[in-house]
Amino acid sequence: MSRLSDDQASRSEKTRQAQRFASILAERIHDNSSAIIKGAFVSYHSFEDGRVIVELTANRESIGAARQISRLMSGVKP
Q1: CA separation for the pair 56, 76 (Å, rounded)
Q2: Alpha-carbon distance values, 29 to 8, 22, 62 (Å)
Q3: Using CA atoms, how far apart are residues 66 and 38, in angstroms rounded to an integer?
C-alpha cells in the first residue's frame, strides 16, 4: 500500500513541476511576443485586386529601439 502512495506522491510532484514550468513558459512567451509587437514596423504595403497587403517586420534592432523609446517616454534613462 505504501508503494502506491509513493507513486501517487511522485506523480503529484511531477504534475506540480510541469504546471509551474508551463506557467513560466507561457509568461516568457507573452513577454517576448509583447516586445516583438512593440518593435514591429510596416516594411511593405500594397493594394492589389481589392486586397490590402501589409508586411510587418521585427528584428533585434527594432525591438531594442522600441524598448529605448518606451524608456525615454517613461522618463527612465537607457
Answers
A1: 28
A2: 31, 10, 18
A3: 6
C-alpha torsion sign, points 35, 37, 68, 42:
positive
* pLDDT tens digits, 10-49: 888 888 888 888 888 888 887 777 777 888 888 999 988 8
Q: What does pTM read for this prediction?
A: 0.48
CA nearest to 61, candidates 41, 78, 46, 31: 41
Burial class (CB in 10 A: 0-12, 13-18, 19+), 15: exposed
At which residue does the C-alpha cell 497587403 appear?
53
